[in-house]
Amino acid sequence: MDAAYVFRVEFRLAPEGAVVDPDRFETTMEVPASEPDTDGWLFFRDRLWRAEIGDESSFRRLASDRLGVEVVAADFRELRTDREHLDALRSAIADDLDRFNADAVDEVLHKYLGSSIHVREE
Q1: CA 65 and chain centroid, separation
Q2: Rounded CA gap, 66 and 117, in Å?
Q3: pLDDT tens, 55-114?
């Protein structure tokens, strides 16, 4: 299984004793998606809402820690996944729909990821 949450992030450089121009840069950051029913698999539920970052300041801190630079902006782009991971995710959601306050798996996926799921066939 292979999946990642893909974000566009803007970061700023503020080196001591030097001036950089530009001081802001944009890049893509991928956060590996945990396998369903393992620690961290609810990242999408805890961080996203309708394909938007739910708490951007908290996410910017997380991204800053992971990247080692000050992240000043971030946007969710997609869950990039293979079919095996998506099927396992759908199954794990179906096993506990009450956790998501939903009646169907598709409702859960849309509620958190919108239409931002990109299945890659290998």
Answers
A1: 15
A2: 23
A3: 999 999 999 999 999 999 999 999 999 999 999 999 999 999 999 999 999 999 999 999
Answering whether pTM is above 0.70, one says yes
- How do beta strands 52-53 and 24-32 pair? unpaired
**What would the two tokens of residue 76 be?**
């969710």
From the list 56, 45, 21, the residue with the least C-alpha distance to 97 is 45
Beta bridge partners of 5: 31, 79
Tokens read off for 56: 């951007």
Nearest one of 23, 8, 32 to 70, comparing CA atoms: 23
Both tokens of residue 122?
């290998």
What gap in Å lies between CA 10 and CA 3, rounded to an integer? 22
Q: pLDDT tens across 27-37, in order?
A: 999 999 999 99
Q: Where are the domains of the chain?
A: 3-116
CB 63 within 8 A of CB 41: no
Q: Kindly state the tokens that stand for 49.
A: 């809402």
